[in-house]
């Protein structure tokens, strides 16, 4: 029998003192405690003391005991593998003996330690754990049953996959039937644990659960109207998950489940209502949604719109009850500012599709603002209001205009209501359905848009801010109508709101205006003076958080109007405040990101107009890249001494240099000449982080176009790296690498020949892959065409392997320089290897017909190939061949090539 470990009085006293001190509000005391705790980790039995305080020292207060357990949990997390075996054994034993402690707090803490040990991969070397916990579920002592269930729930959450593996010889076969027995336990807490445990195994379609699926569903129905809100919440959660995984089993019960979820979406407990509301989002993804939900829309829509109202608590938190709302004097708290994620530069081809009709919500790619328009972080990020709005949004996409006859009476009632909270929810609903119901809404917009413009001057700030968002959702329509009737009044009022006294309205107006800019593009040119005056005036008024959104609005404006911004009076308005900010911000300040992004757009738009500012901007970007690379090296060599750098600094700097190269073109020459940019770029191109490589390749392509003489000497080092990055698993990196190879080949000419073996096979693989995204297909086709243009004899032999995909990839892009060089390449390859195109000649004809106005000499190349082919096969065969053409295609070809 080995001796039981006992604490020494002095050691115990020291640790208790430390635990008491660590609850002090004073940060200096807390820091000192942290240090002492780190030192104590050197003593092997320090963790024995911690578990002893947690499980045995009943005389101490619960918070002190629990804290001891939480420190132990952190030690297990960080150092468990270096615990002595006897210490680890002692901790495990003590945990299991204290799992039924009378105090819920202590039970929960013990459960957390057990799970943390289990998640260290220890669950395999602690074979008695699961059987013991399952056995304790049958204890007559409620505390033991609840404590072991608590631990099991955490284990199921953390190690669900492991529990369903052969490594532990499938304990779930025993556990799941066991959990199901407790669905009807007398204690709501136990019922809750039981459902929660099973819920973790639904998504993975665990076999042990699928065997008992009917018993599970039957038990859920039994608990449907449980008096305990947490049980109801778990039941709703289970049904939402089952809808995705086992719709077949729910289908016979769906009418009842829909009625139940309608009821629960109105549950007095918001947490239950929120869980139930998720059901509509899930149901919208199922093909049966229209059929099963159509008849119940009149019952569901009023519930969703009611769920969109701000609660009384929200209104207090958001200070929505105040009228004057001059809150812009109050300084922003750092906690209110969400982290922003920079989207690295990606090279895409401009399409000839009408502006923005692919995305009626007009939000470009950023769907993150489509969350019911309230981006306030003092509210939890996901709540019933946002979930209800999202539900209405997805249902509008499923039902389209069929939703409107049910929705219009609700809108009539809410939009014109005297209570501003109800009116606000109506305006939100109107915005939520914009994406799905646009076609049906169009006849009503001539009345609705002016009404919304009036709402922009409502007394309540929350009404003004949601109206900004809703108007932005209809910006595609607004831009396509008479400017005098719609665009001008919307723009004028939105710009007034950009200068609102309320910060939340400023934010909403600025975001909405950026969306309008994306839709309107050059339609805004006549109003540029007024727009810039407003945005620049906002610079002087905005605080930290909204400044970041203002940068975005200015950058989007530059992207939208392009070179029209390059006028002395506009530059005089815009550049001084931007450069002032640029000079004030320190190199390590993250506010540089949005400012650099904004400047990148402005530099691209202003072109030569940016020349007076380019030198300091260029130098700082190069310096940011160099600092980041150096810090990275320092961190790699001695991680304990140097922190890892934030590589976003480098990514954003690379992207701004791309903007400079694109805007200034040859003018960037002397800047690159007098810097070490090419050596830094060589390092960035090999960075393990994909976003860094993505931005490096974009910059490489832009420098190739702007000042190839500086890129040329590095080609032997650069091209093998580009070849290694032609991996379509990382789309954006692959896309930019592909584009850069094409740009380099055009400049390098026949010299490209020796590099073709490094890249050609990869490119042919990518173009033939199923499900390759459109942008990557187009870039790949253009680059293959360009390689064939400069080295037809190297590429033509494999023509047959890619020509069909090549033609279908490029038939949808509009005439431009890239398309021109690619088609010259394909024509040259066909001349070298005419046999390579025979099987797919119809696709080539179709691609040729996609040109609106090819240059004369390119048109001649097309004509020569078509006539050559016709002469080769003879009149009769040619007629049979062209009889298969659609009318339009024959007409285009005869007009273009006289054939």
From TrEMBL:
It comes from Pieris macdunnoughi. SUPFAM superfamilies: ARM repeat. Residues 33-101 form the Importin N-terminal domain. This is Importin N-terminal domain-containing protein. Residues 353-364 have a biased composition (Gly residues). Residues 365-374 have a biased composition (Acidic residues). Gene3D superfamilies: Leucine-rich Repeat Variant (1.25.10.10). GO terms for biological process: protein import into nucleus.
């Amino acid at each position: 029998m080995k001796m039981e470990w006992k604490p020494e009085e002095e050691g115990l006293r020291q640790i208790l003192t430390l635990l008491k001190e660590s609850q002090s509000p004073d940060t200096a005391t807390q820091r000192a405690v942290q240090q002492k705790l780190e030192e104590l980790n050197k003593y092997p039995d320090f963790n024995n003391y911690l578990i002893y305080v947690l499980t045995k020292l009943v005389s101490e207060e619960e918070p002190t005991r629990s804290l001891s357990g939480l420190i132990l949990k952190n030690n297990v997390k960080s150092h468990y593998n270096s615990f002595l075996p006897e210490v680890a054994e002692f901790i495990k034993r003590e945990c299991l003996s204290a799992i039924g402690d009378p105090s819920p707090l202590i039970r929960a803490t013990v459960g957390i330690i057990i799970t943390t040990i289990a998640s260290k991969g220890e669950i395999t070397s602690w074979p008695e754990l699961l059987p013991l916990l399952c056995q304790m579920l049958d204890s007559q002592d409620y505390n033991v049953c609840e404590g072991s269930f608590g631990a099991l729930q955490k284990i199921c959450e953390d190690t669900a996959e492991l529990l369903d593996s052969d490594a532990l010889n499938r304990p779930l076969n025993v556990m799941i039937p066991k959990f199901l027995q407790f669905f009807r336990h007398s204690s709501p807490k136990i019922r809750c644990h039981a459902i929660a445990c099973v819920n973790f195994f639904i998504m993975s379609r665990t076999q042990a659960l699928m065997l008992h699926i009917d018993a599970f569903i039957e038990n859920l129905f039994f608990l449907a109207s449980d008096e305990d809100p947490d049980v109801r919440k778990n039941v709703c959660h289970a049904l939402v998950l089952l809808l995705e995984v086992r719709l077949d089993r729910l289908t016979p019960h769906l009418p009842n489940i829909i009625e139940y979820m309608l009821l629960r979406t109105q549950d007095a407990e918001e947490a239950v209502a929120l869980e139930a509301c998720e059901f509509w989002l899930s149901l919208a993804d199922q093909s049966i949604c229209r059929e099963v939900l159509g008849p119940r829309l009149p019952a569901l829509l009023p519930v969703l719109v009611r769920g969109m109202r701000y609660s009384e608590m929200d209104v207090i938190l958001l200070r929505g009850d105040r009228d004057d709302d001059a809150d812009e004097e109050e300084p922003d708290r750092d906690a209110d500012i969400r982290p922003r994620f920079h989207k690295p530069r990606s090279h895409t081809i401009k399409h000839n599709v009408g502006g923005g009709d692919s995305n009626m919500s007009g939000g470009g790619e950023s769907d993150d603002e489509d969350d019911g328009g309230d981006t306030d972080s003092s509210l939890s990020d996901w709540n019933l209001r946002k979930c209800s709005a999202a539900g209405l949004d997805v249902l509008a996409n499923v039902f389209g205009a069929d939703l409107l006859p049910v929705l219009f009476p609700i809108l009539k009632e809410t939009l014109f209501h005297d209570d501003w909270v109800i009116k606000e929810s109506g305006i939100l609903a109107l915005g939520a359905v914009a994406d799905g119901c646009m076609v049906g809404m169009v006849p009503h917009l001539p009345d609705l848009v002016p009404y919304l413009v009036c709402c922009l001057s409502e007394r309540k700030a929350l009404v003004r801010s949601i109206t900004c968002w809703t108007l932005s959702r209809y910006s595609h329509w607004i831009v396509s109508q008479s400017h005098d009737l719609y665009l001008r009044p919307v723009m004028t009022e939105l710009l007034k709101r950009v200068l609102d006294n309320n910060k939340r309205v400023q934010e909403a107006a600025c975001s909405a205006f950026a969306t309008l800019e994306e839709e309107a593009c050059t339609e805004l040119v006549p109003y540029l003076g007024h727009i810039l005056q407003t945005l620049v005036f906002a610079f002087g008024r905005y605080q930290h958080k909204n400044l970041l959104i203002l940068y975005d609005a200015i950058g989007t404006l530059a992207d939208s109007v392009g070179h029209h911004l390059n006028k002395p009076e506009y530059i005089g308005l815009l550049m001084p405040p931007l450069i002032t900010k640029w000079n004030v911000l320190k190199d390590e300040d993250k506010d540089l990101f949005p400012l650099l992004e904004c400047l990148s757009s402005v530099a691209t738009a202003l072109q030569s107009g940016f020349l007076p500012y380019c030198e300091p901007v260029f130098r700082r970007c190069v310096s940011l890249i160099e600092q980041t690379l150096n810090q990275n090296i320092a961190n790699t060599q001695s991680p304990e001494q140097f922190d890892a750098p934030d590589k976003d600094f480098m990514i954003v700097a690379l992207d701004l240099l791309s903007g400079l190269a694109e805007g200034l073109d040859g003018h960037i020459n002397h800047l690159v000449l007098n810097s070490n940019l090419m050596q830094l770029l060589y390092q960035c191109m090999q960075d393990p982080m994909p976003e860094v490589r993505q931005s490096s390749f974009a910059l490489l392509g832009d420098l190739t176009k702007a000042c190839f003489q500086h890129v040329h000497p590095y080609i032997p080092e650069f091209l093998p790296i580009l070849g290694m990055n032609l991996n379509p698993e990382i789309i954006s990196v692959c896309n930019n690498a592909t584009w850069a190879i094409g740009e380099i080949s055009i400049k390098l000419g026949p010299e490209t020949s020796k590099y073709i073996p490094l890249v050609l096979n990869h490119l042919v693989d990518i173009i033939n892959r199923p499900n390759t995204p459109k942008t990557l297909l187009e870039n790949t086709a253009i680059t293959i065409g360009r390689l064939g243009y400069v080295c037809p004899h190297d590429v033509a032999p494999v023509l047959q392997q890619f020509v069909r995909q090549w033609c279908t990839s490029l038939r949808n892009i509009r005439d431009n320089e890239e398309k021109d060089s690619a088609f010259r390449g394909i024509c040259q390859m066909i001349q070298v290897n005419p046999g390579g195109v025979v099987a797919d000649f119809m696709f080539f004809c179709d691609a040729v017909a996609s040109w609106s106005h090819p240059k004369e000499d390119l048109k001649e190349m097309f004509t020569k190939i078509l006539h050559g082919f016709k002469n080769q096969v003879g009149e009769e065969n040619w007629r049979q061949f062209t009889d298969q053409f659609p009318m339009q295609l024959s007409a285009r070809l005869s007009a273009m090539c006289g054939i």
